[in-house]
Write a structure and sequence with these properties.
Helix-turn-helix transcriptional regulator; single chain; DNA-binding; mainly alpha; 8 helices; 434 Repressor (Amino-terminal Domain)
C-alpha cells in the first residue's frame, strides 16, 4: 500500500467512520474506497475533491505527500486547477514514458499545484510540462 492510500484510510479511521459513511460524505463508491485502502487501486480525483470539500482540516499537500501545513497555508481546494494540473502531470509522464508510483505521481501533482497557486497558471502549458518532466 502506498503512503497516499494509507493517509486516506487514516483520515477515515481518525474520524471513526465506516467505509460506507465515508463514501457518502466523499461521494465515491465503497468498492473503490476498499480497493484504495487495500492498495489495489490508485485514488481517483473524486476522492481528493470529496475529501477536500468534506474535511476542511485535511490539506491537499498532506493528503498527497504527507507534508503538514500551518492553518494559514491551508487554502481551499481549487477543483478546476487541480483537474488541470492532474491532466498536465499525466500528459507529461506519458511524454517522457515514465511509469510513476502513486506516491511519486502525487508528489508531482502537489508540486505543480502549489507552483500554480504561487505563480499563477502559465498561459503556455509547456512551462508546467517542462517542470514536471524535470522532476519526473
Amino acid at each position: 500500500m502506498s503512503d497516499i492510500n494509507f493517509r486516506i484510510k487514516e483520515v477515515r479511521k481518525e474520524r471513526n467512520l465506516t467505509q460506507n459513511q465515508f463514501c457518502k460524505l466523499v461521494s465515491v463508491s465503497q468498492s473503490h474506497l476498499s480497493e484504495v485502502e487495500n492498495g489495489k487501486s490508485k485514488p481517483s480525483l473524486d476522492i481528493f475533491i470529496g475529501m477536500a470539500k468534506s474535511f476542511s482540516d485535511v490539506s491537499l499537500r498532506w493528503l498527497l505527500i504527507g507534508e503538514e501545513v500551518s492553518e494559514n497555508e491551508n487554502e481551499p481546494l481549487r477543483e478546476d486547477l487541480l483537474k488541470e494540473v492532474i491532466e498536465v502531470v499525466e500528459g507529461a509522464l506519458e511524454q517522457v514514458e515514465v511509469v510513476a508510483s502513486a506516491d511519486k505521481k502525487a508528489a508531482l501533482i502537489a508540486a505543480a499545484y502549489e507552483f500554480c497557486l504561487d505563480e499563477g497558471v502559465p498561459r503556455d502549458r509547456t512551462k508546467l510540462i517542462k517542470l514536471v518532466k524535470a522532476v519526473a
